[in-house]
Amino acid sequence: MTRRSWAEPWRIKMVEPLPITTREQREKAIVAAGYNTFLLQSDDVYIDLLTDSGTSAMSDHQWAGLMEGDEAYAGSRSFRHLCEAVADVYGYPETIPTHQGRGAEHILSQVLITPGDVIPGNMYFTTTRFHQEHAGGRFVDVIVDEAHDTEALHPFKGNVDLAKLQAVIDEVGAERIPYVSVETNVNMAGGQPMSLANLEATYDLCRRHGILVMLDATRALENAWFIKQREAGYEDWSVADLVRRICSFSDGATVSSKKDNLVNIGGFLAVRDPEIAREARSLLVAFEGLHTYGGMSGRDMEALARGIREMVDGDDHVRARVGQVEYLGDLIHKAGVPIIRPVGGHGVFIDAAKVLAHLPRDEFPAQALTAAVYVDSGVRGMERGIVSAGRDPVTGDHHRPRLELVRLAIPRRVYTQSHMDVVAESIGAVYETREQIRGLRFTYEPDHLRFFQARFEPIA
Ligand code: F0G
Question: pLDDT tens digits, the chain, 460 residues: what are they?
């Protein structure tokens, strides 16, 4: 059958009622939450686009897996199913299960990083960089310049800039670089993919210098879809084959299974080298759990094993997933609101620095815009700008990323096209009254990953 639209390859079997609130209720709720959407009660949220992490709807087959999960402390059958799924779909022989992505990042960083090391990567992610720094390493951004430009219509804004990577190697020496941290479909750049050609070239460069390539393969599926759409020679490949091909240019990967893998909790570190796997497992038992569950229950692992296979069971799932994100992005773009383009794989990213051009960056425009959207409609997004970037551990000043964004992340298989229409209408309405939005200042600033728990008040 010829597909004429991105329409979903599933129908709805069970529904969950959503709370509809009044503007007055939402005004109270945002004050109580210190203008931080992470601190809202979900009972006060209508359409929750805070994150695409752990918010997917599972299939009937996955729910059935919950009943069949093997809760044995050691040697669980569900763990074996997980290892087989990771080996078949991603191609890594060694799977180290963790409670979620940051658990895998923690273990990987502790195994590979020695204090003073440098870890180049294609843009930072909050928890990934935290664990690299926590292990005594220093992250250096080597993503292409186009990634920082919301309007550059580059098809692969997630690419590694090979000249920047070479310059870091020349400057600090390959022996100070345990691995290059390469993220598929770069979250902080707006869900932007890298090309297979770029990944292969990165892998070749690293191999020549004896440096490992460790993927953050959390959104490798969405990256695979963009390769199929945009990279010459891969039009006829299945996303299953493309995911395998992506991983073939790496020595291992950390994965937060709460995204592509269609489960509500879970993750893993997967590697080729049995020695790295051995060291990781010996830390795992201290920090996560036994090496055959690593923080997940047997039923979690069963649902995860099924989710991994389901995501690449044909291309229609990812077509609909990315298609829905593009649908929302196109509506918001047509309303004249500046967003990151091309629209990314997991959400729409509004350029808050442009929308609230009257606010200085130190008054947190993206945080303020996120709060204003919530008050307008009960749609919950997330700040991805100066607040998320945190402070430089050496100078103590804010990191100042060029991107100052409101992220509207779309959960997988959860909301309908009419929900997307409501979101776009609200963004358009807030945009019309943008000049009334005031800046914010901290009333509480946490020491680590401050965006999760920070509190703010409006500047009079
Ligand atoms: N890597 C990437 C690219 C991520 O997006 C995330 C989480 C992680 C690692 C950490 O995984 O949450 O399972 O510990 N991103 C979520 C988000 C929190 O909303 O973007 P985790």
Answer: 566 789 999 999 999 999 999 999 999 999 999 999 999 999 999 999 999 999 999 999 999 999 999 999 999 999 999 999 999 999 999 999 999 999 999 999 999 999 999 999 999 999 999 999 999 999 999 999 999 999 999 999 999 999 999 999 999 999 999 999 999 999 999 999 999 999 999 999 999 999 999 999 999 999 999 999 999 999 999 999 999 999 999 999 999 999 999 999 999 999 999 999 999 999 999 999 999 999 999 999 999 999 999 999 999 999 999 999 999 999 999 999 999 999 999 999 999 999 999 999 999 999 999 999 999 999 999 999 999 999 988 899 999 999 999 999 999 999 999 999 999 999 999 999 999 999 999 999 999 999 999 999 999 8
Compute φ and ψ for 323, nearest 5 degrees: -60, -40
Measured from the Cα of 103, ligand 1's closest atom is 14
Verify whether residue 451 is a known catalytic residue. Answer: yes
SS (H, E, C) 172-203: HCHHHCCEEEEECCECCCCCECCCHHHHHHHH
Structure pTM? 0.96
Instruction: Name the residue among 19, 405, 21, 356 with its Cα closest to residue 30.
Output: 21
Q: Which two tokens stand for residue 342?
A: 């091309």
Which two tokens mark 259? 């995204």
Task: Report d(CA 55, CA 136) in Å as an integer.
Answer: 32
Of 132, 187, 346, best ligand 1 pocket probe by most atoms within 8 Å of the beta carbon: 187
Q: Is the CB of 102 inside a 6 Å radius of any atom of ligand 1?
A: yes
* 159 CB within 6 A, ligand 1: no
Q: Which domains are assigned to the chain?
A: 23-52+315-458 (3.90.1150.10), 60-311 (3.40.640.10)
Is any ligand 1 atom within 6 A of the Cβ of residue 187? yes
User: Ligand 1: which of 53, 185, 254, 268 to mutate, judged by most atoms within 8 Å of the beta carbon?
Assistant: 53
Assess whether the C-beta atom of 122 lies below 6 angstroms from ligand 1. Answer: no
To test the pocket of ligand 1, the residue of 125, 254, 448 to mutate (highest count of ligand atoms within 8 Å of its CB) is 125
Nearest to residue 182, comparing CAs of 83, 108, 293? Answer: 108
The SS3 call for residue 265 is coil
Q: Of all atoms in ligand 1, which is nearest to the CA of residue 54?
A: 13
* CA-proximal residue: ligand 1, atom 15 (nearest): 53
Ligand 1 pocket, residue 53 CB under 6 Å: yes
